[in-house]
Design a protein that fits this description.
The chain is an alpha+beta fold and 446 residues long. It is built from 14 helices and 25 strands.
């Protein structure tokens, strides 16, 4: 498959933001980045044709499609957001696109699928956001129980596949990506595999829905215990709709709240936003919800959220995150710009990553009053009038976006340099924000 998405290599794309204006109007939540990545990796299990709808045209998807094409998978866009995937008779891992593979940590989810096709193989180290050490122990321990041995070298994972067997796994940590990886591994191991302390987050559920269409029975979807009744072969033509992205819904919520604006955000996956909304409500946010309706996948419950200008106050309790149904780990950073506009002192505790909270300090350049207690905790004093600045984009997706949100609220002209990390996860974010009345222009784009 030809692609023109690998824009990071030759030049920096920047955003110019004329901030300080209110947002207004309506926006529809896009389908999920993380859901798309899990579904693309799951499609490797199927010897038949897979059609996936609702795949966002973002850099992260571009990288994984380049890897898929390089190992012999035929991938075609059949419309603007739908992909047709046809696996080869034999994967050719010798031709794997090392450069693209090294740019996305999603590559580690190839393990769960490829163990069903090779007795031994290697994959490059995964990358993605720069967020400190990202342990892969949970992947390794779970796959080892199924009969897979993995050696980690300086540049790659060396995999040897023994006799695969169903088993009971207690997850070392309730992570989204390791849960998906173990699901893919268990799907084609005949018999019953039980995964305890599994993540039940939105992207995990979507992979479960997809595997069920492929004939794999999965009990406990949406809970922390998954029971997978694996099958020996998967060979069928299947279509599946990727679900909407609660992280993008939260990004628009944060943008509206930080700029004290009234907007309507459509197609919000409410089951994965309820606690975030409760925290915002207790901070003083006024909003209303529509009646629930179903996504095109016929599983995910959606609502439309309308925000109203509000007077915010800091919570007495800290704001932190955790595995679903807690505040989503990727949604926690969006409380940072909100907290700059809340009267009082907000403690935000990002316990998952060693260095992500340090990136929150970039909001100081916009006038945010932020003090760091340690690499996981920051105190934010508000309400603060934000000011324009020129900032180099943090090399992590969510911290990069909260700087952009701060710029929307900051009066004057701001420049956000090298926005590749934002483009990894958000499709046409400048034009979509502009449709709400923002003024974001793209500099240096070919």
């Amino acid at each position: 498959m030809n692609t023109t998405q690998n824009q990071q290599k030759n030049h920096s794309i920047d955003f110019k933001v004329e901030g300080g204006s209110k947002l207004s109007g309506e926006i529809t939540t896009n389908t999920s980045k993380n859901g798309a990545m899990g579904l693309l990796c799951a499609s490797l299990l199927n010897k038949g044709q897979t059609i996936l709808h609702g795949i966002p045209r973002i850099e992260e998807v571009g990288r994984i499609l380049e890897v898929m094409s390089s190992i012999g998978i035929k991938v075609d866009w059949i419309d603007t957001r739908s992909l047709r995937i046809q696996p080869p008779k034999d994967f050719n891992l010798d031709n794997i696109d090392q450069n693209s593979a090294s740019k996305t940590r999603t590559i580690i989810m190839f393990l769960g699928s490829l163990i069903h096709f090779f007795k031994s193989f290697s994959l490059p180290h995964s990358a993605g956001c720069t967020l400190g050490k990202r342990s892969i122990s949970t992947h390794l321990y779970g796959l080892e129980k199924m009969g897979v041995k993995i050696k980690v070298t300086e540049n790659s994972y060396i995999i040897k596949v023994g006799k695969l067997k169903p088993t009971e796994i207690v997850m070392f940590e309730a992570g989204d990506t390791p849960t998906e990886n173990l699901l893919l591994a268990a799907a084609r191991i005949p018999g019953k595999t039980v995964i305890k302390f599994a993540s039940s987050n939105y992207m995990v559920q979507d992979v479960c829905f997809f595997l069920q269409k492929l004939g794999v029975r999965i009990d406990g979807v949406g809970t922390s215990t998954l029971t997978i009744h694996g099958v020996r072969e998967i060979d069928m033509n299947v279509e599946h709709y990727n679900s909407e992205d609660p992280i993008e819904s939260m990004m628009f919520l944060s943008s509206a709240v930080t700029t004290n604006s009234s907007i309507t955000i459509r197609s919000c996956p409410i089951d994965f936003l309820e606690l975030e909304l409760l925290k915002l409500e207790k901070m003083g946010l006024k909003f209303k919800l529509s009646k629930k309706y179903l996504s095109q996948n016929n599983h995910t419950k959606l609502v439309d959220i309308t925000t109203f200008p509000s007077s915010l106050k800091a919570l007495d309790d800290k704001i932190t995150c955790g595995p679903y149904p807690d505040i989503n780990i990727d949604n926690l950073p969006f409380f940072v710009p909100v907290a700059t506009q809340a009267k009082g002192v907000t403690l935000i505790h990002d316990w998952v990553y060693e260095v992500r909270a340090i990136y929150f300090l970039e909001m100081r350049r916009l006038g945010g009053k932020i003090n760091i207690a340690d690499p996981h905790r920051v105190f934010i004093e508000g309400a603060t009038e934000l000011k324009a600045a020129q900032i180099v984009c943090p090399p992590a997706l969510r911290p990069a976006v909260i700087v952009l949100i701060g710029m929307l609220a900051a009066k004057g002209t701001s420049i956000l340099r090298n926005v590749y990390s934002i483009k990894r996860g958000y499709e046409d974010i400048a034009s979509r924000l502009n449709s709400l009345g923002a003024n974001v222009s793209i500099l240096n784009e070919n």
